[in-house]
Amino acid sequence: MRPDHLRALERAHARSVAFQESLPERPQHVTATLSELREAIGGPTPEAGSPSDEVIDRLADAVEPGLMGMAGPRFFGWVIGASHPAGIAADWLTSAWGQNAGLYTVTPAAAVVEEVAAGWLLDILQLQPECSVGFVTGATLANFTCLAAARGEILRQAGWDVEADGLFGAPPVHVYVGRDAHTTVFSALQYLGMGRERVIAIGTDDEGRMDAEALDIAMARHGGPAIVVTQAGQINTGAFDPVGVVSDIAHRHGAWVHVDGAFGLWARACPARAHLAEGVDSADSWATDGHKWLQTPYDCGYAIVRHPEAHRRAMAIGASYLQTAAGGAFEPRDYVPELSRRARGFATWAVLQALGREGIASLVDGHCTLAQRMAERLADEPGVRVVNRVELNQVIVQFGDGDPADRDAATDAVIAGVQREGACCLAGAEWHGQRVMRISVISWPTAEADIDLCAESILAAWRAVRG
Ligand SMILES: *Cc1c(COP(=O)(O)O)cnc(C)c1O
Questions:
Q1: Cis peptide bond prior to 161, omega within 30° of 0
Q2: What's the gap in Å between 259 CA and the centre of ligand 1?
Q3: How far is CA 269 from the centre of its chain?
Q4: What was the pLDDT predicted at 327?
Q5: Do residues 78 and 437 touch, judged by C-beta distance below 8 A?
Q6: Could you tell me the distance, in angstroms and rounded to a whole number, from the CA of residue 140 to the centre of ligand 1?
Q7: Ligand 1 pocket residue status of 79, Cβ below 6 Å
Q8: What's the pLDDT score for residue 154?
Q9: How far is CA 30 from CA 23, 37, 368, in A?
Q10: What is the CA(203)–ligand 1 centre distance, in A?
């Protein structure tokens, strides 16, 4: 190997280790400004090349001040996992091996790794073993892939071949979505030609759970081909739609039921929390992430479909120069929108091995317990209100005792105070018309001491605001 190429790989290794080891101490929020980052990263278009090792050091020097502590122990800002070292290492190999994971015949090992990892995922998530699994970039594309399968199957039952003939002239399909669904569900509907705003929105309760009775009434009124989109794990509250009840209703009306379970689906991997996701297995498809609770590096999500034929009809890519595997091997390109892509199965396989079923269960259970600890610490303080029922990993909080506008202002001021102090990373959101602080506990390195430190930082910021 050329010496600078070899040194580039060594520098990447050294810089990775140094960054990871600095995570507990470095500010969890970014300190660099936009102009500082442009200055450090920019410059004229490179004309002559540079030695690869110098490029790697230049890259790391330039970007590190603009990186968030997402892989560290006190990142509570969004529902974001913290790349597990086994996954990182498998990901380095994935890049070094340079496999195009589109087809079995092109890279048999990558295809078989996905086949095996898919079986383990279904087992751990307690979903039917006959489901098909597509390895996509995240839950956004998993929602897209599953809803494409749903669209195709529902229209096929109505006598229409949407894969061949498209949506123009097709029978209308009603899509029912809870009011507190994740924004990427609407993105998926947008990409699929079903319209972000053409949905029939179903009311939700204080925790964001779909009102099953209202769904039943709406479905009876509208009739016709239908898809019902539910969720397991609301992005703010962590709450679950009553998927079992919803499935009974929706299936009675002949509809397909999809679950957006980007992180919440993993409650099924944990005996102590599985009751939260009861009935979720009665659906027809599920979207979930590897890069959230499973802690794989980016990017990694899974599109899981109970009807493999519908999944394949929606996604299969065919051409005469692309040979299909003989002997029933798993064909990665039949289950995802892309042909050429990263061999995502390697990192998934590695993290599933490194944690094991027991490790995943205790990770999920531990995060839920830590979220409860955080909620208790905060709720003890006058003027602090935990807004949601903390059963999963999500805590949303409001500050102040005044009128709604005062509370919104106080909440934003506390969030800004915590961000200035920098001991932990968290942010705000709007929940049912009010500003809330959001705390997501979902990183594998997070321990009790991190929760306590963060709670102290939040309470100190609140006391400063309260005066
Ligand atoms: C994160 C999330 C998504 C989107 O997943 P990506 O991995 O960002 O594509 C969808 N739905 C829910 C409930 C989520 O939490």
A1: no
A2: 12
A3: 16
A4: 75
A5: no
A6: 6
A7: yes
A8: 98
A9: 12, 11, 27
A10: 21
The predicted pLDDT at position 284 comes to: 98
Q: Residue 394 has what DSSP assignment?
A: E
pLDDT of residue 317: 82
Backbone angles phi, psi at 376, to 5 degrees: -65, -45
- The residue ranges of the chain whose pLDDT is under 70 are 319-326
Cβ-contact 346, 93 below 8 angstroms = yes
Are 340 and 98 within 8 A, CB to CB?
no
Asked if 346 contacts 90 with a C-beta cutoff of 8 angstroms, the reply is yes
Under 8 Å between Cβ of 154 and 225: yes
Q: Which of 144, 145, 147, 182 to mutate to test the pocket of ligand 1 (most atoms within 8 A of CB)?
A: 182
Give the per-residue pLDDT at 27.
79
166 burial level (CB within 10 Å; 0-12, 13-18, 19+): exposed
Q: What is the pLDDT of residues 219-244, one digit of tens each?
A: 999 999 999 999 999 999 999 999 99
Nearest to 75 by CA among 438, 390, 459, 461: 438
**pTM for this model (two decimals):** 0.96
